[in-house]
Write a structure and sequence with these properties.
The protein has seven helices and ten strands. The protein has 229 residues and is α/β, with parallel strands linked by helices. Strand 9 (207-212) and strand 10 form a beta hairpin. Helix 3 crosses helix 4 (112-125) and helix 5 (141-153) runs parallel beside helix 6. The longest helix is centred in the C-terminal third of the chain and has 16 residues, at 171-186. It binds adenosine-5'-diphosphate (2 copies). One adenosine-5'-diphosphate binds at residues 11, 13-14, 18, 36, 38-44.
């Protein structure tokens, strides 16, 4: 589903590589934690998968796409099949909960009929049916992240990329979000989640890919966060 082959990324302004000869393979249906200290290359790896950056060396594949070689005009098609959630939710502040989810379907050209069907399905999936007409500012952090997850899943992505999705949430709310992501993964969606949250990684016991200074430091099938440094 996702593959990095000997990928290095050197930003023009930076002395050391952000990623240094990294190879990783993720099968459909996997749940992968991407961990490592700040600056170890986690965001760069996610940005390469989205073609927000291109590798200096090596190859990046998502499903059948050779991502680095994809013509620019096909990049939107790739991104439509990747769901993204972030630490800061990134909801549209002037649109209701339902309209935030609808927007994701509008930009991919879905019909009114599809939008009317899919939006309530997505809100039900994340347990927010009763809050369809709320505005983002009226939501708790956990609710806002659930809207972001609903929006990310609306177009049935091949993979959900989550960059520190619990970074702004208290531990209890983080656990709720992880239960939701676990349920989504068990229903078949591949998930790659960058995180610093030791408790979550240790509780989930899923695959752990660890980066250090841009190098692959560890790839454990049912890993823990690792020794406290
Ligand atoms: P992480 O997400 O693990 O914190 P990043 O991928 O953001 O790591 O960063 C990896 C390295 O690349 C860091 O040294 C960072 O300073 C550098 N870096 C990231 N983005 C850029 C950029 N756009 N331009 C130059 N250097 C960058
Ligand atoms: P939590 O403690 O679960 O993070 P909050 O205490 O922030 O949640 O919110 C509790 C409930 O109040 C939530 O259902 C949320 O939708 C609602 N709420 C929070 N802030 C506002 C607001 N500014 N206006 C209206 N409702 C709000």
């Amino acid at each position: 589903m996702l593959r990095l082959e000997n990928v290095s990324k050197i930003y023009p302004t930076s002395a050391r590589p952000a990623l240094d000869d990294v190879s990783v393979d993720v099968d459909q249906g996997e749940f992968v934690f991407l961990i490592g200290p700040s600056g170890s290359g986690k965001s760069t790896l996610l940005r390469l998968l989205l073609r927000e950056e291109t590798p200096t060396r090596g190859s990046v594949y998502v499903a059948n796409w050779n991502v680095a070689r994809l013509p620019n005009r096909k990049v939107p098609k790739l991104r439509q099949r990747m769901g993204c959630v972030f630490q800061d939710f990134r909801l549209l502040p002037t649109r209701s909960v339902a309209d935030n989810v609808a927007f994701a379907l509008e930009v991919t050209g879905k019909s009114e009929h599809t939008i009317r069907t899919v939006v309530p399905e997505m809100l039900e999936l994340v347990n927010l049916t009763g809050k369809a007409d709320r505005m983002p500012a009226e939501l708790s952090g956990g609710e806002a992240q659930r809207v972001a997850i609903a929006r990310a899943l609306a177009n049935r992505p091949l993979v959900l990329l989550a960059d520190e999705p619990t970074g702004n949430l208290d531990p209890e709310t983080s656990d709720d979000i992880m239960l939701l992501l676990d349920r989504i993964n068990r229903a078949g969606t591949t998930i790659v989640m960058a995180t610093h949250d030791r408790q979550i990684v240790d509780a989930m016991r899923r695959r752990v890919v660890e980066l250090h200074l841009g190098r692959l430091a560890r790839d454990d099938a049912r890993g823990v966060y690792g020794a406290r440094r």
